[in-house]
């Protein structure tokens, strides 16, 4: 058995009042949920991914509900770093939220420019590198699938963002997600976040065309929970840095499973669309009943199916 | 309108009435502290905590009084079917009011309100709101449905000074679509200088713009889109809109639901 987890904890130089975060994307810039989510009660709000320049996002349809999930093809629409730091981030902080800023990995040059801009922001002490967005042409998942590129992007972030915690969000759309986590750890990452969306597609009702212009989209929601859970289990047994579990959490019980799998914290994403009270309920339940211990893995034979 | 007025409520169903083979009016008790809403705003409802669908469903507010909140629900899928099966006393998980823009009240001249199907709902709210505010402009309704059975005449009441109907199958009113009805009235010189308000299927509003747009510089429409968050966070419900010579994506939920119809890049809008 591992040591009991307390409510508060740290990732690198950044500390958090509890272990329940809002996931990047669904949470927007945070302020949109005024009146629905008590942001000041949560461990952190991971912002919508920003890029150095504004992005308009993808044309065409962007959402398709599935049997137990949601496909999206938003395409990293965001206001750009300048507006984010001038308007969106101060509003989020004023709302009592503890931000983790999600930084988009585009091509190398704009990525470096974004890191350089972020390094100057004293109000930011934690970032999450989105190396895993499936919905953009350049960067994103193309970076996040290659351990060598992951290491290069993470090392640049650590070299630039002195004194800030760097979390790295990983894609599950690879044969060995643990190898990505090891690459991130080796490059100095303070934590990894697993998982981003699972690639999928859907057709229009008449089967005449795919729903999305880019065909592929990212699947989130309850459907992906077992995939996320297995990824967290595997990563937590491959690296020493904290693992932040995310993917399909729809109940307090779902959140507990991630801690049992080895997560140090959890993020709630798609569920806030239909149950914005869930993150606070998870906080309350964990405060009342403690954080579940990580299950020891010695007696389990892994690798078989 | 301040976005901070929204809240999440357990709304209790006061009554449900089936008006047509597919449409139901649901009247909820207005939850305590549910903010005042404007025409074009909406609520999002989580139909079930245990069964599909996953996402909330957005519904235009059809009326809001001191005591009640009325919605018009057409059964088209799992979510709406579950809503249409609710009984008096049942509660639903409801967020609202949502939406960042409203139908602007008519200024000079008359107002023509063009509705297709359940697009009637926000226009009824508009007419009732403006009537309650004591506005004296004449409000004329042009309303199209597929068949006589689906014409929800029971909702029209006395809010409109004049109503014209159309049905696709010709079983009541003008035989054809509501856009033709508009064209016919226009040829009689009835609509000059009027403000045009619309809500209905995308093809209807697009046809209004493309066939009549130049003659109605002031045409505002309440749009519908598949939504996830309903509050402007996820950017999933976007509509392409022309602004300053280029196309930008606006969120139907928070930048709308009401837009200038002539600004929408209809040919670019999929899904």
Could you list some keywords that capture this structure?
heterodimer, A: alpha/beta, eight-stranded parallel beta barrel, four-stranded antiparallel β-sheet, 9 helices, B: 271 residues, seven-stranded mixed β-sheet, globular
Describe the structure.
- The complex is a heterodimer of chains A (305) and B (271).
- The longest helix of chain A has 14 residues, at 81-94.
- Chain A is an alpha/beta fold and 305 residues long.
- In chain A, the strands form 3 sheets. Chain A has an 8-stranded parallel β-barrel, surrounded by 7 helices. Chain A has a 4-stranded antiparallel sheet with strand order 5-6-12-11, with no helix packed on it. A two-stranded antiparallel ribbon of chain A has the order 1-2.
- The radius of gyration of chain A is 18 Å and the shape is globular.
- Chain A has helices at 81-94, 108-119, 141-144, 147-160, 177-186, 225-236, 252-261, 271-274, 278-289; strands at 9-11, 14-16, 20-22, 44-46, 63-66, 69-72, 99-104, 126-130, 165-170, 191-194, 198-200, 217-220, 243-246, 265-268.
- By secondary structure, chain B is of the alpha/beta class.
- Chain B contains 4 helices and 15 strands.
- Chain B has helices at residues 78-84, 120-132, 178-187, 202-212, and strands at residues 7-18, 23-29, 42-46, 57-64, 68-74, 91-98, 111-116, 139-145, 162-167, 174-175, 195-199, 219-222, 238-243, 246-251, 258-260.
- In chain B, the strands form 3 sheets. Chain B has a 7-stranded mixed sheet, sandwiched between helices. A 6-stranded antiparallel barrel of chain B has the order 1-2-5-4-3-6. Chain B has a two-stranded antiparallel sheet with strand order 13-14.
- In chain B, helix 3 (178-187) runs parallel beside helix 4 (202-212).
- The radius of gyration of chain B is 18 Å and the shape is globular.
- Chain B starts with 6 loop residues before the first strand and ends in an 11-residue tail after the last strand.
- The model of chain B has no long low-confidence stretch (mean pLDDT 92).
